[in-house]
Amino acid sequence: MQIDSVNIGQTASAAVIIYEALKKAIIEGQLKDGEPLRQDEIARMFNTSRIPVREALTMLEQQGLVATQRYKGAVVAGISPDEAAEIWDFRALVEGRVIEMAVPRMTPETLAAARAHLEAFSNAANPVEWGDHNRHFHTTLYRDSALAYHLGIVEKTLDRVDRYLRAQLSLSNGVARANAEHEAILAACEAGDAARAAELTRRHILGAKANLLDLLSRG
Amino acid sequence: MQIDSVNIGQTASAAVIIYEALKKAIIEGQLKDGEPLRQDEIARMFNTSRIPVREALTMLEQQGLVATQRYKGAVVAGISPDEAAEIWDFRALVEGRVIEMAVPRMTPETLAAARAHLEAFSNAANPVEWGDHNRHFHTTLYRDSALAYHLGIVEKTLDRVDRYLRAQLSLSNGVARANAEHEAILAACEAGDAARAAELTRRHILGAKANLLDLLSRG
DNA sequence: TTATCGGTTATTGGATACAATATGCAAGAG
DNA sequence: CTCTTGCATATTGTATCCAATAACCGATAA
């Protein structure tokens, strides 16, 4: 007998489910910097014991999203202006390289997907959507680089600062400027000009950095 | 009353102790690629239950040092030639930037410490010592950059590939060539030539990459 | 022979119970 | 009143036990 094989999604463990939910809440800013994460409380939310909760918190700590102190618990890890500045520099360095490697391999499908995110971004109406489409626009342009390690680092870095990225986009001129810069980056990709796409990406990120530092310094 | 305060080292949890021990064993190559890590076997080694072992394995998985399958356990994560090539490219990119930022801030103490590692490296007699002194030579030159995020990523990346770095150094001309290149890098740092130190570091890493790929392809 | 089925064992995932530590408060000494 | 001290409580860290799943192996039928 021959039947269609269905990809059994390898049902995730409770620890992973909790991890993903907490990560999403932190990334989207629903959990504020410094907010304590009580094992017992989270366990009750998910109808589990504290064991998988602890595993989830361990994962989040490894990613720098929470900070833990022995016998005192975990809190959502914030970020200082200095760290923010450094991380945006890091992004400019790595994402510039990644897009440069991606452009020569970029497919029409990828370009179309990126344009869809670009348009969705410019039509979006709230910070969560801005953040999502902005991020997906960029990572879509990166994926054809096929640089798995680089892409993993980029994703982890974006997870770490996603909250601040959203806040920066929400500034007065944030979305409009990002939109114009996205258009330019996409045009360079469509033209197959890797060096230009890289340079525009670096400028885009460093411009956002300046915007963000202004925001952070004003409180 | 006034007494000397002693820094109580915040005794580490069992999970962290196990994590560090396993990490060291993997990094130094005592645990081979693909070797399974049984929870209760490790628990017996450390006279603990499996709970802290699982936390340690979770941490190692987040760092990419082990790969886990649900209900099947964890194995030491190996690396493919493609991944190796990509990671060495990443190192060249990031470490080049880091040393460039470090040179203008580099203190005489740092330079002296780096020279000590350089000499210890050239006098070392076995792969473990080569690896340690090689790594410390480079990270010493990076530290004055004060780029905490970059340095964290560099350390994690080195952890991921330390085994292969050691193997590459052990090739016929590995140590001699590395030694000569280290001298040149250190000279550029002492001369305050940041751009040259960065370029030499990139070349050093990319040269090692070619060496390693040769090793991996030959088996 | 070879493929499939059933059960046995080994191993991991998770729940409950207990131990270790920190925090807050109230009582008492100065 | 202020500071210390000791206890009560809250929270985390770990051990033990049970549940879920995978791997192995022998028996059986085509």
Automatic annotation (TrEMBL), chains A, B:
Q: Which PROSITE patterns match?
A: HTH_GNTR
Q: Which UniProt keywords apply?
A: DNA-binding, Transcription, Transcription regulation
| Domain of life (superkingdom) | Bacteria
SMART domains from the UniProt entry: FCD, HTH_GNTR
Residue ranges occupied by any HTH gntR-type domain in the UniProt entry: 12-79
InterPro entries recorded for this chain?
GntR_C, TF_FadR/GntR_C, Tscrpt_reg_HTH_GntR, WH-like_DNA-bd_sf, WH_DNA-bd_sf
Keyword Ubl conjugation among record annotations: no
The answer on whether this UniProt entry bears the keyword Ligase reads: no
Q: What is this protein called?
A: GntR family transcriptional regulator
At the highest ranks, the source species' classification is:
Bacteria, Pseudomonadati, Pseudomonadota, Alphaproteobacteria, Rhodobacterales
Q: Which Pfam families match?
A: FCD (PF07729), GntR (PF00392)
Q: Which organism is it from?
A: Albidovulum salinarum
